[in-house]
Hints:
The protein is 29% helix and 31% strand. It is an alpha+beta fold. Helix 2 runs antiparallel to helix 4. 34% of the residues are buried. The model has no long low-confidence stretch (mean pLDDT 93).
Amino acid sequence: xxxxxxxxxxxxxxxDVSKKSSTLREAVxxxxxxxxxxxxxxxxxxxxxxxxxxxxxxxxxxxAAKRTSDIIPMCHPVAITGIDIHLSPDExxxxxxxxxxxxxxxxxxxxxxxxxxxxxxxxxxxDMCKVVQKDIEISNIRLDKKSGGxxxxxxxx
Length: 157
């Protein structure tokens, strides 16, 4: 099975999904933002001059999922039916774990929407914290699981 985003001339194309069945689809992506203890304390105690960092990151993730087809060239616009972004601070690791769950009923999946949501939430945390810490690390962004569609279910192991 080759790459599907190229036409017979080897040029980029958007895959035609018009003959695919509309099914319930879900994708879960995750990633982690590592900060130092002082930065995490600022985030957890609401001491940032920029506002509630986790709330803004959550909204950024939702907005990014909805706009994925505008920034990823070959992504189809998808009628998303649900987006949930969960941010989980971990003081032992000085980390914020991000999980995005995206759902739709359609002809193509929402993996890219979930990955984009995690990425935007992580980048928002970075943006809002860069004034106090420059060496923030964004790590391990990946598809955790997906369901629906012809290719079936997938789960990261």
